[in-house]
């Protein structure tokens, strides 16, 4: 059942979701999913050759002005399903050969995860659970999921509170992300550290992601400083796939363009200088269809109901 005074994320907006009210994230008392399918373009330890079983949840507690998935994050696009269907979806993705179950932006549905993951495990789910998050997570939320989540695939978006306030409307993002990351590190250490299988697929651990924003390479370097300070030499993914959406193109300024090679190299050099030994980086520039799959409700309904 949805919380009556929701405090699942750092917004702490206290929406009475149990009574059908909608929180800042767009979630109410229903469960909505926009897509559930294999995805080949996560980092190699996540997607491997076979693909990651991604489940894109509707809604998001951040409101990033440059979001590439705005139809589902702010538009709340998706189909309403019952929690039992979420269990079936996980098992179907495993049957399709997924290396893991990749829960994309599930923060506002965290109340359902213990039951859904537990039930799926009882019914034969044996692959890792990846928790794919904006990084805007409460420490206690991370702790509560510590035994359920095998791999934390977490963004670390900003070092500057001003930038976080301007672009995602959350001034406390840097502080929250820092605490959340520290808790993720504690959870993984408690479970014995990072583990891979013989093919290099991550079975347990974390990857910290950072999207470089045009005109903000210096903030990216401060993000890397923070990650190094909190987590040390963790696998890190520095991305240059920023692509201006319609709103950003109209607004003009730095965020109306792509990241330059010089900006990206500046950030990658800084990651090297800090000492990160597992660094994922991108050869392409702006985003293409493969990075943003069609949110067409693939895999959300039972085949018989679709
Ligand atoms: S998860 Fe949604 S409803 Fe709950 S506190 Fe966060 S924004 Fe509010």
TrEMBL record:
Transmembrane segments: none annotated. GO terms for molecular function: catalytic activity; iron-sulfur cluster binding; metal ion binding. Keywords: Iron, Iron-sulfur, Metal-binding, S-adenosyl-L-methionine. Binds 1 [4Fe-4S] cluster. The cluster is coordinated with 3 cysteines and an exchangeable S-adenosyl-L-methionine. [4Fe-4S] cluster binds at residues 60, 64, 67. Residues 55-181 form the Radical SAM core domain. This is Radical SAM protein.
């Amino acid at each position: 059942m949805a919380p009556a005074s929701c405090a699942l994320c750092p917004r702490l907006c206290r929406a009475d979701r149990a009574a059908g009210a909608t929180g800042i994230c767009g979630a109410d008392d229903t469960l909505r999913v926009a897509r559930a399918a294999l995805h080949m373009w996560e980092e190699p330890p996540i997607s491997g050759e076979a693909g990651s079983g991604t489940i894109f949840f509707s809604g998001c507690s951040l409101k990033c002005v440059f979001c590439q998935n705005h139809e589902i994050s702010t538009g709340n696009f998706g189909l309403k399903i019952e929690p039992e269907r979420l269990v079936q979806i996980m098992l179907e993705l495993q049957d399709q050969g997924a290396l893991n179950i990749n829960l994309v932006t599930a923060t506002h549905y965290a109340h359902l995860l213990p039951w859904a993951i537990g039930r799926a495990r009882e019914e034969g789910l044996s692959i890792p659970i990846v928790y794919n998050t904006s990084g805007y997570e409460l420490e206690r939320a991370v702790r509560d999921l510590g035994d359920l989540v095998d791999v934390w695939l977490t963004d670390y978006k900003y070092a500057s509170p001003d930038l976080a306030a301007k672009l995602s409307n959350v001034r406390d993002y840097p502080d929250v992300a820092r605490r959340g990351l520290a808790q993720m590190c504690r959870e993984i250490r408690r479970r014995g550290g990072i583990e891979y299988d013989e093919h290099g697929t991550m079975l347990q651990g974390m990857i910290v992601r950072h999207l470089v924003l045009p005109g903000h390479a210096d903030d990216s370097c401060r993000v890397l400083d923070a990650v190094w300070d909190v987590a040390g030499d963790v696998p890190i993914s520095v991305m240059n796939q920023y692509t201006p959406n319609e709103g950003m193109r109209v607004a003009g300024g730095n965020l109306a363009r792509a990241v330059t090679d010089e900006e990206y190299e500046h950030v990658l050099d800084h990651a090297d200088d800090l000492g990160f030994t597992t660094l994922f980086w991108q050869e392409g520039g702006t985003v293409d269809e493969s990075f943003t799959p069609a949110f067409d409700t693939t895999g959300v309904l039972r085949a018989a109901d679709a």
